Amino acid sequence: MNAKGKVIKYGDNVDTDVIIPARYLNTSDPAELASHCMEDLDDKFTSRVQKGDVMVAGKNFGCGSSREHAPISIKASGISCVIAETFARIFYRNAINIGLPIIECPEAAIDISDGDEVEVDFDNGSIKNLTTGKTYQGQPFPEFMQEIISADGLINYIKQAK
Predict the structure, then answer these.
(1) Most buried of 69, 78, 89, 145 (most Cβ within 10 A)?
(2) Does residue 121 have a pLDDT over 90?
(3) What is the pTM of this model?
(4) What separation in angstroms does the CA of 91 have from each of 66, 97, 98, 105, 153?
(5) CA distance 9 to 27
């Protein structure tokens, strides 16, 4: 399982309120949520994100409320993977449950720049910055977590297991 795309980078403590503002939580429609993703932090996000792009952030990404709308809006916007120094635990769990690949790698999150192109190999946790040629080692997903993400989330994974 791989992801490859252009980087859109943010800083530390990106909370779920700026990933998807609470005023849009009257829907669970992924396309509607994606149309407002990151708008309180970056009003140009929806116009510049392309399918397959990779979001990179600092420490404690996804802190705040436990709303699963946050990873849904990121995934529906076209982001193929989020790389961060660290994730808030509930965001980490929600991301896996809805099938959004994420990977913690402090060195990569600090070193990679906005606009770089990166490739992530989830089988071994490697991250390659195709712009600079540097490689980083993140924590690979255990096989069962890769299966959940490959199934497009926990619900589909359980349906397939029946």
Answers:
(1) 69
(2) yes
(3) 0.94
(4) 7, 10, 10, 16, 14
(5) 27
